[in-house]
Specification:
The protein is α+β, with helices and mostly antiparallel strands. It has two domains: 1-59, 2,3-Dihydroxybiphenyl 1,2-Dioxygenase, domain 1 (Roll); 73-127, 2,3-Dihydroxybiphenyl 1,2-Dioxygenase, domain 1. It is built from two helices and nine strands, in the order βαβββββαβββ. It has helices spanning 13-24, 82-94; strands at 5-9, 27-28, 32-33, 40-45, 51-56, 75-78, 98-105, 111-117, 121-126. The strands form two sheets. Strands 1, 2, 3, 4 and 5 form a five-stranded mixed sheet that branches. The longest helix has 13 residues, at 82-94. The radius of gyration is 15 Å and the shape is globular. The chain starts with a strand and ends with a strand.
Amino acid sequence: MFIEHIALYVNDLEKARDFFIKYLGGRSNDGYHNVRTGFRSFFISFDEGARLELMNNPQVIEGDRTAEHTGYAHAAFSVGSREAVDELTEKLRTDGYEVRSGPRTTGDGYYESCIVAVEGNLIEITV
């Protein structure tokens, strides 16, 4: 058994898609649009692991992201080396993304940084 994909609702579907393509090497399908319901989505594939489904639906209500909450906390992406973590973190910082933490070695041994990206969702960059 394995995780096939994880889905994320976003307000700006194209901007979210472009983030995962530009910074994390994702590849997007052509997208899906249900004209009856207004639902739209893109599947983003990576070299390994699960796909990410980015979704938009005009009927979805914006959630409160001002504090920690239950539910999914972040999505982690392995970039292969400490140097790659450092480089991507600095590129994201330079491009205006908030670096929440790191790069650092965590208490459980991960070398990572945590970025506030894609409408306030946290992206972890790790080895």
